[in-house]
Amino acid sequence: MSKDSLAHPSDILRPRHVGSPIKRTEDPRLLTGSGEYTADRKPDRALHVAFRRSEQSHARILRIDTTAAQAVPGVVAVLTAENVADDFKPVIPFSRMPNYYATPIVPLASGKVRYVGEAVVAVIATSRYLAEDALELIEIDYEPLGAVARAERAAAKDAPLLHEEAGTNVLISREFKKGDAAADMKASTVRVSGRFEMTRKAPLAMEPRSYTAEYDAKRRAITLYTSSNIPGIVRDAISESLDLPGNRLRVIAPDVGGSFGSKGSLYPEELFMCIAARKLGRSLRWTADRLEDVSSSSQAFAEVVEAEMGFDRDGHAVTLQADVIGDVGAYSIYPWTCGLETVQVVSFLPGPYKIGSYRGAVRGVATSKPPTGPYRGVGRPISTFVTERLMDMGAKALGLDPLEIRRRNLVRAEEFPYRIASGIIWDKTGFIECLDAVAGAADYAGLRAQQLDARKGGRLFGIGLATYAELTGIGSRIAVAPGMPINTGSETAKIRIDATGSITAAFGVASHGQGLETTLAQIIADDLGARFEDIRVIQGDSDAVPMSTGTYASRSAVLGGGAAKHASRLLREKIRRVASHLLEANQDDIEIENGIARVGGTDRMVTFKQISKAVYSDMKTLPVDAREELEASYTYDPINGTTACATHLAVVEVDPVSCFVRIHKYVVAEDCGRIINPMIVDGQVHGGVAQGIGAALYEELIYDDEGQLLTASLVDYVIPSAPEVPLMDVVHIESESAVAGGFRGMGEGGTIGAPAAIANAIADALLPLDIEVSILPMTPERIFRLMEQASLKAKGKTDD
To answer: Where is the segment annotated Disordered (predicted)?
Structure first.
């Protein structure tokens, strides 16, 4: 069904909500403390859970003694892996990919531990305080098996194996090829290369992970409240693991205080809460403290990329080669597998550029650290960092301006759809338009003149560009994670008008702070012809629609919005049919707007409330065959999804004494298709860039060689605060996509473009010192060491 197949001439008469900066309907409750998060749930006689976590990064469990803990007053149960072994089946993050090993997911460590922070024993007590106290009384003996905290070391043949049954620590390997990259590289006029790295990050959502399992003894059923953005996927996985029918397991994601991807996977603790609630016949609560959240939630990035790009004499990129090693941590995640981040790095490395030949190889290596998982941008922050650094390095070698080299290599409007060297197909979007828009908005020529003056004064002043493309709202033809057999390419909307004329719309998508209650209601208001204030949006509830997955991969506007448009139009036709009876008019003459159906060109009208009363309550108004339930459902699949893109520009200055980086100016030109709510889009861009600034300059999880986390608190793990985040200029390029509504996803873009733009700006600032940037974050310490090395190198040349 095409996006316009249900269109009607009266559509143009309705007031438009899509495109308007409507204030978020969520904000009043969230800002006044009236929201309900998982930790706010207080079921009757609920027990509290605390986890004893491993202090060892890789060790065999020899003995667990829980005798003293069980004797503590108020402790109801102390459970180990052995105690729950018969209560579930392991969850397997399976995939059709070759050269992949799926590590089983279990609620508690069994036999051995594989990272510091892995849950080993659970204490269940009448209060969290008592449970925490009892943890200290548990005795665990370990036999160290040798840490494998570095991916390069873990990939070696003689490295200790985290999963002996896999026979290797390389859990996934993949290679992409197009043409003869080696021959093209040899023939290139200019070759630039480097070893690039983005270190581990913590997603660090405002709300730590939190789960409440409410047990219903009458039905022997469980309702799991979870701070998750994939409640439907969690329901299906736990239902199968516990052999519990879906109508006895309900999973609800209430208000969620951020995710950034970390709440987009099934966790062992979610599995445990349901197992223990059923085992004990009691409701259970658990909320991670910040230490637990940092050390046991999935983490981000941790890739090293050795890459080389070849150019011809005119500055056209001829070829690209890359070898990637990804540190995937101790386990593969469900449902995305450990190929989610790693494989997408090599998939997206060619970016929005016309690169002739390509070879990209990746290995995802298990290490004795927490698993890596989804993080805003998934694979693209580092692939963009690498490709954009190589573009700048190529410009430097060829004597071209960084803006010009991108203009020569970007895919142009007449070349879409374009298949890049890794096989990804970009649909028509504004690559060149974003580049030109950011240059104009920032006064690029003026900035270069300003830079010349700054350098004359000895200032380290730099300008950085980064252009990227991403697939958003992808449908059933493309798996979110390579080889994953779970369908995450469709979304369902169910919209109904009740007997009072009020509208309730249920979706499978799950908001974690991005304003979906508002944007989805805006779409429905336009396509149904309803009043915005009459619409209630339900989301994040596995019972709301037959099949729900959640929110990830910038899919909510494209898939949720597409489903909303189609379901709204189906329901509008029902309203038009009923109204034609009530108004004794031809159905085609009925116009619907603002909750009113009227006969075009007259003052004869009925409200939605009158229509619903006629359908549900007043049995004499309508003939029997004209009464149809005022409800519509639609499952939308965009098949391929769509492409979003942006160009980021950063202007920075490096203090030569403190080595701190100050961002003077930041401009984004992005194309997310037709904008639903400009205020929300701007907020997403601002938040994403702030997060990208953290990845570029501050945030780093540092592990020692024994797998011990050295930055486990917010004292040591630094994130940008308000003074470090500059004011931003955002330019919107609204090229409508081919999917319903013309929408494109855009929630991840800030974290994709910002690290690369800032890295290029720092490299440009340090250009007089002949310093290249190849690792992020560029902390003051790293900049100091690079400047020190450059100084010693310069002195050595002088001495010669």
So the answer is: 1-37
